[in-house]
Amino acid sequence: MNKIAPPMNLKTQVQGFMAKKEVQLSDELAKKYGVPLEEVADVVNSFLKDTYGPAIRQAQAIDHKVGMVLLFIGRKDCNICKRSEPILESFLSRHKDLELVKLDYSQPSGLLYHMIHNQEKGMLPLIAFICQGDVRMIFTGECLHLDVYEKYYNDMLAECSQNIYAH
Description:
The chain is α+β, with helices and mostly antiparallel strands and 167 residues long. The chain contains five helices and five strands.
């Protein structure tokens, strides 16, 4: 289980991921074909836009939400994801203020997993509590007990309430 100490801004995380990918892919292509970085820039940008565009749009939609969001990224054929879903449904039935955003990792928008988790590989599902564009808690690769979600929800609720009134 991963718990993020300071909040991580979703928009900043996505931008950082994309910048890192642009440098990585540009370097790889330039070296492979023996050309200057400028010559591969358009191809790299087009590829990144096509590949990660749906995930970027999903991140922007989440970032613009006023309330709290529970993000679930999983796969239909993942046993841990299947075991997690009823627990999350029970949890969400008790907390109508949370909006569920459920993504399939095998779909283009599911690449948001890598933008948030910032790793090439990981374990499903990714479950994140997001408040006002800040990722507060992340859990990956585990089916957690309802009490764990309750604890982190209450912690997040307290933090988000303080932030709302501070502005």
